[in-house]
Amino acid sequence: MQILFDNYKVCDTCRSLWGFSAYFKEYKLLLDTGSNGRVLLQNMKELGVDVQELEYVFITHSHWDHIGGLDSIIEINPNVTLFVPSSLSKHLIKDLKSLVKDVVVCGKKPQKLFGDLYTTGLLGEEMPEQSLILDTDFATVVTGCGHFGIENITKVAREVIGKDIQCVQGGFHLLGSDDAKILATIQALKSMGVRCAKPTHCSGNRAIELFLAEKFV
Asked: InterPro entries under this entry (predicted)?
């Protein structure tokens, strides 16, 4: 996984704004699109990622800092398949269907996307969000913001693919959480067999520090 857009600097010549986007080269898949299309495209260029090579875009949830660059992506490369949450505006989904190759609307039920990629299905009521599961030898879950709780998402992912999750990455939604909450999250992940965690975006500086201190990154 290569992070393209984050509120933490992803390369010396890249720009940082609030939001998140990551690229999976082996799948030609982009997860989320950050908050700003111009900055996303600039960072992709700096990191050597060709927009024209994209075949899939996976949107975790409807917040502005995860879909802000979508229009810029599909303007350059409309020949993509979108995996979008059903919680998106029905009008936006209708418009997207007229702009790209295909739109797969994902609901609450987990499902296989293609190859060894799965969605957890939409989790949570206040802000429904799907996360990406890579069912490989080193099974991994990648979140956008992790509103449902990274430990809860991991539990669901284990049930979907029927084996332990080895690594969790992305936004863990721990910004502003106290040490007790963060440490409890770390212990919950370890108890489920998670071997590494790479928090970023809305995880917060303190959470990142504690995950590092626990030698969990």
From this structure: DHPS-like_MBL-fold (IPR041712), Metallo-beta-lactamase_dom (IPR052926), RibonucZ/Hydroxyglut_hydro (IPR036866)
Name the DSSP class of 123: B
* SS3 annotation, 20-76: EEEEEHHHCEEECCCCCHHHHHHHHHHCCCCHHHCCEEECCCCCHHHHCCHHHHHHH
| Sequence letter at residue 201 | H
Q: What string of DSSP letters covers 136-173?
A: STT-EEEESS-TT-HHHHHHHHHHHHTS---EEEEE--
pLDDT of 217 higher than 80: no
**36, 173, 199 from 204: Cα distances, Å:** 21, 8, 8
pLDDT tens digits, 185-200: 999 999 999 999 999 9
Question: What gap in Å lies between CA 202 and CA 35, rounded to an integer?
Answer: 13
- In the structure encoding, which two tokens stand for residue 197, read together? 């965690």
Domain boundaries, the chain: 1-106, 108-217
Using pLDDT thresholds of 50, 70 and 90, give the confidence band for residue 28.
very high
pLDDT, tens digit, 9 for 90 and up, residues 154-178: 999 999 999 999 999 999 999 999 9
- Give the mean pLDDT of 20-41: 98
Q: pLDDT band at 32, cuts 50/70/90?
A: very high
Output the six-digit token pair for 205: 């500086």
Tokens 């939409």 label which residue? 122
3-state secondary structure of 84: strand
CATH topology of domain 108-217: Metallo-beta-lactamase; Chain A (3.60.15)
